[in-house]
Amino acid sequence: MAMGSFNSPGSQMPTAEINMTPLVDVMLVLLIIFIITAPLMTHSVKVELPRAASVPTPEKPMTLQVAIDADNRIHVGSEAVGRDALENRFRAAVDRDANVEMHLKADRNTRYEAVAETMSAARRAGLTKIGFVTQPGNS
Length: 139
What we know:
Strand 4, helix 3 (112-125) and strand 5 (129-132) form a beta-alpha-beta unit. The protein has three helices and five strands; from the N terminus they run αβββαβαβ. It has helices at residues 21-42, 83-96, 112-125; strands at residues 63-68, 74-76, 79-81, 101-106, 129-132.
């Protein structure tokens, strides 16, 4: 309520005052939060890290390209492989290179069972890095 007014004493006009109490309350809460959290953000432990000079290995791990066509035939590279010989083929690749990666490409119409069996054979043979190759689509 205003103490002094230029209006005539008979006419009462509402006064426009902004209630500052909620603003002050919010600002005080934010100030307290920042006072509490600021020291935690700047706290750090000084650690002297060891230095080592190494060169990354230029050789890439061996990749095994496995494809399953729409007729559920399995190809390792460009060679067709039967399901019974698949696990032995994977084991031979793991014996040559323990970090071998398998890139699996499956046709859209391939049965899920063929993909699951191929992945199971790879896991039993010791392959741990299995990636699926897809074709980017137009979204």
